[in-house]
Amino acid sequence: MLYIKLRRDREVSKLFEYNACMKSKKQIFLCAINNILSGSCNEDCKFCTQSVRYKADIERYTFKSIETIVAEAKQAKELGALGYCLVTAGKGLDDKKTEFVAKAAKRIKAEVEGLNLIACNGTASLDQLRYLKESGVDSYNHNLETSRNYYPEICTSHSWDERYQTCLDAKEAGLTLCTGGIFGMGESQQDRDDLLEAIASLSPESTPLNFYHPNEALPLKANTTTQDEALQIIAKARSLLGNERLLMVAGGRELLFAGSEQKMFEAGANAIVIGNYLTTAGDSPTKDHAMLSTLGYEIASSCGTP
User: DSSP class of residue 19?
Assistant: First the structure.
């Protein structure tokens, strides 16, 4: 066992050496999330407070007004966000959701310049994805969440293969792909490795790494990832994805890296979410701005690769 640990330590050290060049790339990309339809999902994902099955104490509402969504997009842009993600609760797109997201996308594109507009609306058909593309959506976010092998342990109401196929279809539709996962849900090291390799097989333009945020209403009670393990995950993701992709530390950042953000950037992350997440509070954007300034990083001002 000692030999295995030493070997793993050497592998992690090599990953950090591989990512050393990231230190000279001082731009950090900011993304904002807008939960435009909240808390109405019938799926049984054990990590998600938006599932109606677990009765989590969250804000639940139907579609936000288009005016509110556009105003919030303008605010996100003023705060330095280059990515702006429109999220809807539920397994996937239906006709009503598709039309609503398309309408919101058209308005945002007409009124807000310089945003990479991302849709995150669950499983979707190729035709639906093409329609979103035609309506102004630039990217589609659909996370694999965990390994194919472990997925039945966290969700039984739909399959991992559906998620992977939606990612393939997003690329076929001409959308840039954003896909990642959640760590700390009781998965094994092999599951983590398998997830990262599956993500890399899709060659996404951006990858959000989330770290499980416990909620007393959910079946999963604790985050099983340490900060050191999270750093290893970031480093391996960077080595698999290459240096020209966006690698984002998203949900759970404040839990694992508060006061230690420099470590995650040195490990290979070059993007963060600002503001609130879907149903949990994040740090204020001004606090994140101050953190980046203190660490010597600049906020990226264009959507090109760093």
Answer: G
